[in-house]
Each structure stands twice: as C-alpha cells, then as structure tokens.
Prior knowledge:
15% strand, cytoplasm, aminotransferase, repeat
Amino acid sequence: SAAEKGGYDYFMLKEIAEQPKAVADTLLGRIDAGGSLTLDEVRIDDSELREIDKVVIVACGTAFHAGMIAKYAIEHWTRLPCEVELASEFRYRDPILGGQSLVIAISQSGETMDTLMALRHAREQGSRVLAICNTNGSTIPRESDAVLYTHAGPEVAVASTKAFLTQLVACYLVALYLGQVRGTKWGDEIRAVIRDLSGISAAVDRVLETMEPVRALARSLADKDTVLFLGRHVGYPVALEGALKLKELAYMHAEGFAAGELKHGPIALIEEDLPVVVLVPSPRGRSVLHDKIVSNIQEIRARGARTIVIAEEGDEAVAPYADHLVRIPATPTLLQPLVATVPLQVFACELATARGNEVDQPRNLAKSVTVE
Ligand code: G6P
C-alpha cells in the first residue's frame, strides 16, 4: 500500500531515501567515545583474529560487489591477503582454506543458497566464518561463528540499495577492526577513517538532494540500448554495481569495465552517442589513478561517447570532458563507493520508470535466491 511505501511510488525510492539513516544505524554503537571500534558482536577472540593469515569473502549479486570493495579495504588496512569470490564458484573449485582463514559471507537475506553452501564448505575445512547480514536470525548468521548485522531495516524492492550501502559500512568496520586488533602501520589513517565514516550519512544525504539532473538525464536515455560503466580501484566494483542495477531494473544491456582494460577490448564498443558512465577517483590521495581516468574519458569522448562523469566536488580537471557532470562529496578514496553508488541507483530506478518497467518486482528476478 501507499502507506507502506511511506508516500513514495515504489519501495525502491523509499529505500534509496532511507540510506543516510541505514548507514548511521549500522555505525551506531560500534565506535566508542575514544574513536576506536568496539565490535563485541564479533565473537571471535582478538587472539584468534591476530592469527588469521588470509581472508576469503563469498557472496552473490550486489553483496558480491560489496565484497569486491571490501578486498581493497582489508588488504590496505590489514595487509592480509584477501580473496573475493562468487559463492556459486567458490565451492566447486576446491578452494584452499584452513584453520587460519577467515571467511566472510555477505548476504542481505541470509538465505541465499549458494552463499550458505559456501560457508558450510568453509566450516568443514575448519575456517572461521563471519556473516555480514541484514536479517536477524536467518540461516546464514545462524550457521556462522559470528555475525555483524547491517541495520538497513527490511528491504522490499528486489534490487538492493540500502542493504548494499550498509554492507559496505560493515565491510569497512571489519577491515578497520582487523587493522586495529592486529596493529598495522596505518594506525593513524585507521583512526582518521573511523572519524570520516561518521560524516558519511550526511554526505549520502547531500547526494540525494542533488539528484534531479540525474533523473532528467535518465529519462532522456530511455530509448538507448546500451550503457557502459567504467571505474578503477574501488570505482571498478561500483561500475559493476551500476551496470547490474540497470540490467535488473531497466532490462538494458549494461556492462561495467575496469577502466585500465579499456584498450584491451571495451574501447571497440565506443560509438557516436553511446552513454558511458565514468566513476572518477578523488584527485587527492591516489592522484595517479585520477589522471589515468581523465585520459580514459578523453579517449572515449574523442570517439563520440556521451560521457556521464561522476566526480568529487572541486575536481575541475574532468569538467572539460564531461557531457554530464554529477558531483559527489569528497571522501577518502576507499570510502567513495558509499557516495558514488547513489546516483547510479537513482539513474537505474528512473530509467526503469521511464521505460514502463515494474521497479520493485523486475521480471524474472527474486529478492532471495534460495535454490542453487
Ligand atoms: C538476488 C537479489 C539481489 C541480491 C542477491 C544476493 O539476486 O535480487 O539483489 O544482491 O540475490 O542476495 P543476498 O540476500 O544473499 O544478499
């Protein structure tokens, strides 16, 4: 009913709008007054966490994209090797796991069969399993050694939005916590990022307030057949997530690429007026990535692409090459997906609406895939 949708036409719109709160709720009570993380719910002893020699993340769909982003954060802040794998592939390739592997299973519903089977396999190998889950008491957390719940609240729309943002928050918390417990040379950066996380909810809110031009752009592209997405570093999984949203909702051909691979194939797809969404890393921090993306944008634009550029406020270098410029607040590089994903969700939702599609219940898809 309309009341259940909180006055919005679709659950998806409501859930997109709830993201600032979902992010804040997922941080709530997990940062102490001294600015350190307290994840008491992670009932794996610190001594055991210090012994871990590898992290393996398993998930499906949107949760898998959260896992891909987590890998960048975990490897950077903990210096532990981290693999991330589709749950449906993981179990069938005889993965190398042991008592010192920490397996992280990410699932909104906690009922995805492939993810459940992957975690059972991991436990049989003697690995510890930590679930990141949005549904209290569901099967995946019940079968795990520990669980860090995301506090997105119930997600009804089939296409995941607020659950994804909270999965990212949970992944950052785990990465930072492992860094904190194990002690790395990034101690100061870890403390700074914990502070930055507290400002993310407001940053997501700011993005939501500026989405009207993105909606107008989406409507103008309703008769296109293909949209490409380019990103690198943590922007690469964001590109994959933007493409997934468009497939799920708009039933369009959409593909995400690592921008560094452009010359190895994707550039052959560029033709006059093809919409290409480009995620631009912060010009601060790892600025070498920024400069590489700017030259990618020039390359595709020279070949006629219509460039839709998602870039940090104050990044002037991209402006001359952007047919459409979408501004997002400045964040540390690793946290950028929390703000960069939001315009892609709005874009896909509006395109689906413009194409007359059922936003909350896309054809052929289920909210939770409980069969293999
Ligand atoms: C289905 C949903 C997706 C979701 C995926 C994984 O495909 O439509 O939105 O990302 O399952 O679901 P989970 O509940 O395990 O996160």
